[in-house]
Specification:
The structure is a homodimer.
Chain A: E1 4-9, H1 20-28, E2 31-35, H2 36-39, E3 49-53, H3 58-70, E4 74-79, H4 88-97, E5 106-110, H5 115-123, E6 124-125, E7 131-135, H6 143-155, E8 159-163, H7 173-184, E9 190-195, E10 203-208, E11 221-225, E12 231-233, E13 236-238
Parallel strand pairs in A: 1-4, 1-5, 2-3, 2-4, 6-13, 7-8
Antiparallel strand pairs in A: 8-11, 9-10, 9-11, 12-13
Helix pairs in contact in A: 3-4, 6-7
Chain lengths: 245, 245
């Protein structure tokens, strides 16, 4: 049996940000699985079966990939960004936990350029000092956990990157996050809204926390909140490497 | 004047993890600057000047790249991993802050696969839920700041990735970090030592926090501490996507 599973990160959108390792895995695959728009980024070819599915079907998709590999096929689950950051790698191991017979499978996670690092690069270096990544969606955790993370991140002096700041199901979550940040941080704290980074729709906006409004983020936006030293130089945003004693 | 500066991430070591964007920038460069071992990863060719320098010379290197670009040359500063994560991008903007005449230069930051995401991919998905990245070196910040970050990261329920856990100059820092983690986290909390990921020297070790010792980390090690739900399935380490209410 020569089947395998790869969970591959396609990066934020630009083909120039897809690693050669991921490109090679896609060239060897018999099957590609993933959320509809991510599978849409893989070029069809003879011998390759595409399995697009909805974004709420992560566990079913993981089981499907395991089934394909057990049947000797070479299955690539594609994620946007990096598969280990709020994406399909954790879902695969969750599915695998229930299937001891599949745990010896040939599985590899192939990293990719995650949204926060693509956004940071476009803006300058806002994550150049200690930082946190927080998924603001409360689909998978209670809001009280989101709030706990936000307050400790702020009090610990971290810059923060927010994934999924706003979703259709919970449009008010980001407004609540902004309200907590305003309690914890000074009004001049800089915040970056980076939308659709590395695609033709890319838009970046940096402003003080006091001027940020919930409608500045949508489902394609990655939000970065600087630390108290984060500043602008020319058109760039960056967090200095040093913290004064 | 057609000079430019790029700050490019070479990823953790494997050439298959270098993005096509970075490869293209290196092909167009007239000059490559960086810490000796990173410049050593760039293939020499006619017309390309290599400028290797020591790892304590970040600001001088940034000024050198700016000078080259102002003189019409195409300068790539290379970093390991991602240039925006504890690397050269922030140093470039720090240098640029003192030189208003250079702020209109053509500058781009080219993201790369950062060490924590490469290490996480090799181990499974330990950063599959909210997480922090902390530079444990106290070269650039007082130890009190490191301690504050560690305690808030633990109390906020974050998984943690530690860069520079141990340096020649400060061999005791990681022992102090482990002592703080033992105050904040339960003994069974899982910790991953990932050394030289994606190179022939790669070594991974996962164990409970109670069994971790300071000598398990060296200058090539990336350390990941799971959150309280992080667990092992087969040979894999992962953090579930969900947190129970």
């Amino acid at each position: 049996m020569s089947g395998w599973v790869r969970v591959a990160g396609l990066g934020p959108g630009d083909a120039a940000l897809v690693t050669p390792e991921v490109t090679a895995a896609l060239a060897e695959a018999t099957d590609v699985l993933g959320y509809v728009p991510y599978v849409g980024r893989v070029a069809p070819r003879a011998g390759l079966v595409l399995h697009p599915s909805d974004n709420r079907e992560e566990i079913a998709r993981a089981h499907h990939a395991i089934d394909l590999a057990l049947a000797g096929r070479r299955a690539v689950i594609v994620s946007s960004g990096d598969p280990g950051v709020f994406a399909m790698a954790a879902a695969l191991f969750e599915a695998l936990e229930a299937r001891p017979e599949a745990q010896a499978l040939d599985i590899r996670i192939l990293p990719g350029i995650t949204a926060m690092l693509a956004a940071a690069a476009r803006a300058g270096a806002p994550l150049g000092h200690d930082f946190c990544a927080i998924n603001l969606s409360d689909n998978l955790k209670p809001w009280s956990e989101v709030e706990r993370r936000l307050r400790h991140a702020a009090r610990g002096g971290f810059a923060m990157a927010f994934y999924n700041p706003r979703s259709r199901a919970r449009p008010d979550g980001f407004a609540r996050a902004l309200a907590i940040l305003r309690e914890e941080c000074e009004p001049a704290r800089l915040i970056l809204f980076a939308r659709a980074v590395s695609t033709p729709d890319e838009e970046l906006q940096t402003l003080p926390l006091s001027d940020a409004t919930p409608d500045m983020a949508d489902m394609r936006t990655l939000v970065i909140v600087g630390n108290e030293d984060t500043r602008q130089v020319g058109r760039w945003l960056y967090s200095p490497r040093k913290v004064a004693p």
